[in-house]
């Protein structure tokens, strides 16, 4: 299946609502992190709506991982990012996959 691409693979920009849904957080938290972490700079259209790239989403995932999963403070997360302590892409993909599995198992557990 060489043409096995989803609509998500074809998109260049994502709205703040789409990003919030991907990360399972509120849009206000994304705006807050945008203000707290200077390296997260989404594009804005003429109306001021944020348009996030895949790179922006990856940056937000990194912040999410450091703050929510590893328990870093915001200052600690800033220092970790500045020090180049980024998780490698392969490791982050495994983490993302495991989080999806966890969410799915939690959903199944609630239904039982």
UniProtKB/TrEMBL annotation:
Keyword terms: DNA-binding
Molecular function terms, GO-annotated: DNA binding; DNA-binding transcription factor activity
Protein name: Transcriptional regulator
SUPFAM superfamilies: Putative DNA-binding domain
Protein species of origin: Neolewinella marina
Highest taxon listed in the record's lineage: Bacteria
Keyword Transport set for record: no
Domain HTH merR-type stretches: 13-83
PANTHER family on file: BLL5018 PROTEIN (PTHR30204:SF15), REDOX-CYCLING DRUG-SENSING TRANSCRIPTIONAL ACTIVATOR SOXR (PTHR30204)
Organism taxonomic ancestry: Bacteria, Pseudomonadati, Bacteroidota, Saprospiria, Saprospirales
Gene3D superfamilies linked: 1.10.1660.10
